[in-house]
UniProtKB/TrEMBL annotation:
Cited CDD domains: WD40
Protein name according to UniProt: WD repeat-containing protein 82
Organism classification: Eukaryota, Metazoa, Ecdysozoa, Arthropoda, Hexapoda
Molecular function terms, GO-annotated: chromatin binding
Record key words, sorted: Nucleus, Repeat, Transcription, Transcription regulation, Transcription termination, WD repeat
Gene Ontology CC terms: Set1C/COMPASS complex
Family: Belongs to the WD repeat SWD2 family.
One BP annotation, GO: nuclear RNA surveillance
Domain of life (superkingdom): Eukaryota
WD repeats: 17-58, 103-144, 246-271
Length: 314
């Protein structure tokens, strides 16, 4: 089944999970698309089976809190940032709920955490104005970049370069093999006046970069030249929350939550709004992602919803 406007319009909520007392702040699919992990402000980590549409495990992180949860290349381990005690990144075995390793270094809240698509490298950004490169196998930081403002970061789909968004106005591209030489290119954009950048994502084809904000604007830029391509608006964010924007796996569509509880969808090439999907979320939808392998989407406020298309394949 291919994604097109008719299929997007047909998406309906197939299942709702009401495990959390507070809002979900982060979700992530395993590479296979078979598993989903979520974390929320009530310090819960929940694991889901996407094929069966079931919740499989709940892990509490009461002591350290949890945000920016990410699967490693195994769907039974994850890394996450802390919201209490300190700003250490933690590597968790979901199999037996034990921490395998700690990654200390950041001195302020972690704002960005991403794992390489090809190996055990991961990158973190923090309000301490540093980006740090790590390897899951070592607690020692592999490299630090000192920046002029709050950074967010993302790996390209081939895991060869990473992008750093700094101060809501510039995107710096680094070669992973020679990051210590500094960025090989910097794109300067108009600094956001009304909001801050809160997330970066490369499209699966590596051609574009999506910039999420804590306002009601999403930007799409050319990954090679930094040219602004689209600005997506018309969704509400009156709470200043970091609403996640995501690509469909074919890079053709952009999805975003909103504070009114709905999911907004745009065509990435034309910039036109395709539709607004109503899943009966009672609270702001901060997290929206499309499954990398299966025809399903997930959105989360306090509740988490699995969406499936309601039209049959022709």
């Amino acid at each position: 089944m291919k994604l097109n406007n008719a299929v997007i319009h047909s998406f309906k909520v197939a299942k709702v999970f009401r495990e959390n007392q507070e809002k979900s702040n982060s979700i992530d699919f395993s590479t296979s698309g078979e598993k989903l992990i979520s974390c929320s402000e009530d310090d819960q980590i929940v694991l889901y089976d996407c094929e069966k549409g079931t919740q499989t495990r709940t892990v509490n992180s009461k002591k350290y809190g949890v945000d920016h949860i990410r699967f490693t290349h195994s769907s039974m381990t994850a890394i996450h940032s802390s919201t209490k005690v300190d700003d250490t990144i933690r590597y968790l075995s979901l199999h037996d709920n034990k921490y395998l390793r700690y990654f200390p270094g950041h001195t302020k809240k972690v704002t960005s955490l991403n794992i390489s698509p090809i190996d055990d490298t991961f990158i973190s950004g923090s309000l301490d104005k540093t980006l740090r490169l790590w390897d899951l196998r070592s607690p020692n930081c592999q490299g630090v970049m000192h920046l002029q403002g709050k950074p967010i970061a993302a790996f390209d789909p081939e895991g060869l370069i990473f992008a750093a968004g700094v101060n809501s106005e510039s995107i710096k591209l680094y070669d992973l093999r020679s990051f210590d030489k500094g960025p090989f290119v910097t794109f300067m954009l108009n600094q956001e006046k009304e909001c801050e950048w809160t997330g970066l994502k490369f499209s699966k084809d590596g051609k574009t970069i999506l910039i999420s904000t804590n306002g009601s604007i999403i930007r799409l830029i050319d990954a090679f030249h930094g040219t602004p391509l689209q600005t997506f608006t018309g969704y509400s964010n009156n709470k200043g929350i970091p609403i996640e924007a995501s690509f469909s796996p074919d890079s053709q569509y952009i999805f975003s939550g909103s504070t009114d509880g709905r999911v907004h969808v745009w065509n990435a090439d034309s910039g036109f709004k395709v539709c607004v999907l109503n899943g009966d979320h009672q609270n702001p939808v901060q997290c929206v992602q499309f499954n990398p392998k299966y025809m399903m989407m997930v959105s989360a406020c306090t509740n988490l919803a699995f969406w499936l298309p309601s039209i049959e394949e022709e």
